[in-house]
Amino acid sequence: xxxxxxxxxxxxxxxxxxxTTIVSVALVASRTRRNIGAFxxxxxxxxxxxxxxxxxxxxxxxxxxxxxxxxxxxxxTRLYFHQNSIPLPTLSFWxxxxxxxxxxxxxxxxxxxxxxxxxxxxxxxxxxAGALTPLFVPVFxxxxxxxxxxxxxxxxxxxxxxxVRYSNGxxxxxxxxxxxxxxxxxxxxxxxxxxxxDIDFMSALTDLVGSASPTSDSSPWVHSNLFQPDWSFIGRSxxxxxxxxxxxxAQTAPIAFSAYNYTEIGYFTNVTCIQNVSASYExxxxxxxxxxxxxxxxxxxxxTLPNSVPGSFELYxxxxxxxxxxxxxxxxxxxxxxxxxxxxxxxGGTWYHPWNKMQCSVEFYxxxxxxxxxxxxxxxxxxQSLEHQSQNITDIEQTGNLTANVMLALDRLSRMSxxxxxxxxxxxxxxxxxxxxxxxxxxxxxxxxIRGLEDSFTAVLDDLLVAYGAMxxxxxxxxxxxxxxxxxxxxxxxxxxxxxxxxxxxxALLIVLAMETRRTRFWKGxxxxxxxDVKHVVVATSAGEKSRARTYPVxxxxxxxxxxxxxxxxxxxxxxxxxxxxxVEHNTRVVFTTGNDDTTIExxx
Length: 605
Fold this sequence. Notes:
By secondary structure, the protein is of the alpha+beta class. The protein has helices spanning about 5-30, 40-45, 45-85, 90-95, 110-120, 125-130, 155-160, 195-200, 200-210, 400-415, 425-440, 445-475, 495-520; strands at about 135-150, 165, 170-175, 220-225, 230-235, 250, 260-275, 280-290, 295-305, 315-320, 330-335, 340-345, 360-375, 380-385, 480-495, 540, 550-555, 565, 570, 580, 590-595, 600-605. It has 13 helices and 22 strands. The relative contact order is 0.17. Keywords: Membrane, Transmembrane, Transmembrane helix.
């Protein structure tokens, strides 16, 4: 009675597939999990070790799947070969197929099939590598708090000290400024901050006037932070977002974040400009002063605005190099009767005359904004959360003095700008109009002048509010905490497509194994004889082991042919290779008979 295959050997493919299936199901179940703890730090700091471990694990799990399918094929073919004749090339092919390996002595079609199968046997390991490789993916979660500015009355000496407005409409423009260069702030190591941003950031504000509009509809408008040029705003600042360039938010996560989001209440500034030909605000030439060698022309920005206090008027001097130098531009801001108005004037016959007689109305709507901060690129993106729903938002400064001061700071910017040869502000407006025409080539010149002026005023007012916010944080220490969500580089095990792919492979192999187990009734009658084991391969092939005896012609045996004795009989080597082999049991008796020309092998059972 032939020895049967062990139960453990038959169950081993199923056990291995159960292990790989459990692992793949666990990967599917955990694919939404993100790690920002110690495991994340280990992988990030030991990428080479992690890659080595993944390679080893994927090779082991892939080998388990390959072994399971190859063992299933081995069991089934052994049952088939037990009952049927099999030529030596076919036997060699299946021996290589279930190993799997390449056998170059076979025909080209067998070799091509083996090559394809050999490559396919490496796929499970590759899929496991994709399913196990740690990936760093972005994840947002609440991470701590960040300080944002407030404008309490006890800090009014900082944010409301630059201008004094009287009931008769007059305004005193003071030089009462507090700066981080002052003695009380000598330990401050951050960027320069001032309570008079219109004075101390005049150059940056003038540049902003000339670059307030994007040059292309396809690219966002990017501009530098006033007090920290290393940081930039993508799009409008909307007067918020002063905190990121000044302070580091307090976080609770064990790893650093690369970006974060928070909300802040500010003002949505809306500027609307028109050409008012009946406006009384104008630039007038007064007289010439100096000698023949050195002379200057004296001009005056003079007039009233629709919201001016009765009996008051705007008036300040402008100087050019001579009376013939007409390149002058000026504007004035008036805050009164709940209105914020700006008037622009320029003499005729100059580059700036298209802006003459323009008037702009400014509205400040309390709004909630979402601030997105990218620490890697040092950029800040602000978006409005509620569209002009001021009735649902608490005004950050309810006296109105903050927005009034911003308007007066814009007014002072014009008073400080040079007009000796050309107007610095006028040239900046020209450059911004060019940007408008580049981004909107179909727009008319008149529309470009108006839109450019609106964009310039909006940008300056927005960033003045940002500067006031910085002053509150650093100089007045007036702030409150706002929750922020951190953008982390979290760790995720495996790519979803590879996780589902390896799960599909596991399920397919389990189905094949179950069907084959049922078809063969758990490989009933399978003996321990294995044609891939050289110890079990002896001689020739036959019509089946059930034959009692049969004679096969073989090449003549001479002294050059080698014969060796084994437990089950003789093995014929060297020039005996072309003969057909018979797979025999250990209890088979082999008898050799030699004739004059041919040698026969008689197999008895």
